[in-house]
Write a structure and sequence with these properties.
Helices cover 21% and strands 36% of the residues. It has a six-stranded mixed beta sheet with strand order 7-8-9-3-10-11, sandwiched between helices. Strands 2-1-4-5-6 form a five-stranded antiparallel beta sheet, with helices on one face. InterPro entries: AAA+_ATPase, ABC_transporter-like_ATP-bd, ABC_transporter-like_CS, Mo/tungstate-bd_C_term_dom, ModC_ABC_ATP-bd, Molybdenum_import_ModC, Mop_domain, P-loop_NTPase.
Length: 361
């Protein structure tokens, strides 16, 4: 368990944040300037707050009341930056060993062979960073952090410098890190897709304060919590792969109803997370027929949230909560209100591969 309680005053901005992160991957989520990186820098020891307490289990990193202020190099942290920051004159293997060189002699160490297999970097060991793609560099950076025998891993928007192709390449490795490495991970992001795929716990920040904390499905499915604005709203469903069809579609069991997506890698029986963007959902009071859209999820309106120029409707379905972003005129025409039965319509091709991830944590 990571426990954080921080207070620090800057000119024009005050950080006053408290949260506890259970095992798994905890995402600090919010718009730019909300205080996410300030928190992670305080945890890393790069910022000394006016007052605060930071602990990983019984490992006390900071307690200003008791005069405990560990230096950054004594905090046993693995830090993954936005850019890999590998040593260009060293091979991949030598960069990995550099991380291990800083591990305390008496600390439990990760096996290098296991880390190499976990991150799929075996073929890269003799290369130098200049010969690697952005995604490959980040995998090596993750490996270096793991081999430093950390008690906590910090990741400050580690995918922000990558294009969409490289992000898609590296996201599965963060899923494996979440599921297979017994370490708490504190991950900074302003991407709803990353949160939906990776987060065990979401800590929402706004103006230097923690405004909500909970599981990804709970936070992203709440229309009252839209840290990135209504345009980025989208809920997360946990569904089960049922079968792969010959026409290139995968059929999933979404609470007893079929959900068709472009073919995914997981086999039948596997559970996956699917993020459905609110602007990709159409609502109907009666079950529609003769549509090109294959996915129709039956549900009941949980809440109608009126925002600027649009309405966010939260619908409880058999698979979980879905959000729909529609006009106020449409909401009034459909007479939408809490308890009204509706059908949520989702185009198969509207769900991107980056919005589909393995279930873990």
């Amino acid at each position: 368990m990571l426990s954080v309680d921080l207070h620090h005053a800057f000119s024009g901005f005050t950080l006053d944040a408290q949260f506890e992160a259970p095992p798994g991957l905890t995402v600090l989520f919010g718009a730019s300037g909300s205080g996410k990186t300030t928190v992670i820098n305080a945890v890393a020891g790069l910022l000394m707050p006016d007052r605060g307490r930071i602990a990983v289990g019984d490992w006390m990193l900071l307690d200003t009341g008791r005069g405990v202020r560990l230096k950054p190099h004594r905090r046993r942290l693995g830090y993954i930056f936005q850019e890999a920051r590998l040593f260009p004159h060293l091979s991949v293997k030598q960069n990995l060993k550099y991380g291990a060189w800083f591990a305390p002699k008496d600390a439990p160490r990760e096996d290098m062979g296991r880390v190499v297999e976990l991150l799929g970097i075996g073929p890269l060991l003799e290369r130098r960073p200049g010969a690697l793609s952005g995604g490959e560099k980040q995998r090596v950076a993750i490996g270096r952090a793991l081999l430093s025998a950390p008690r906590l891993i910090l990741a400050d928007e580690p995918l922000s410098a990558l294009d969409e192709t490289r992000k898609a390449e590296i996201l599965p490795y963060f899923e494996r890190l979440r599921d297979e490495v017994d370490l708490p991970i504190l991950y900074v992001s302003h991407s709803a897709s990353e949160v939906a795929r990776l987060a065990t716990t979401v800590v929402v920040m706004e103006d230097g304060k923690v405004v909500r904390q909970g599981a990804a499905a709970e936070i992203l499915g709440d229309p009252d919590v839209l840290p990135m604005g209504a345009r980025e709203a989208g809920a997360v469903l946990t569904v089960t792969v049922k079968t792969h069809h010959a026409d290139g579609l995968t059929e999933l069991d979404a609470g007893g109803e079929p959900l068709f997506l472009p073919q995914i890698a997981q086999g039948p029986g596997h559970r996956v997370r699917v993020r459905i963007a609110a602007h990709d959902v159409i609502l109907s009071r009666s079950r529609p027929e003769g549509l090109s859209a294959l996915n129709i999820l039956s549900g009941v309106v949980h809440q109608v949230h009126r925002g600027e120029g649009a309405v966010i409707v939260a619908i409880d379905t058999g698979a979980g909560r879905v959000l729909a972003r529609i006009t106020l005129r449409s909401a009034q025409a459909l007479e939408l209100a809490t308890g009204v039965a509706v059908h949520a319509i989702v185009k198969t091709v509207s769900v991107a591969s980056s919005d589909i991830g393995a279930v873990g944590g």
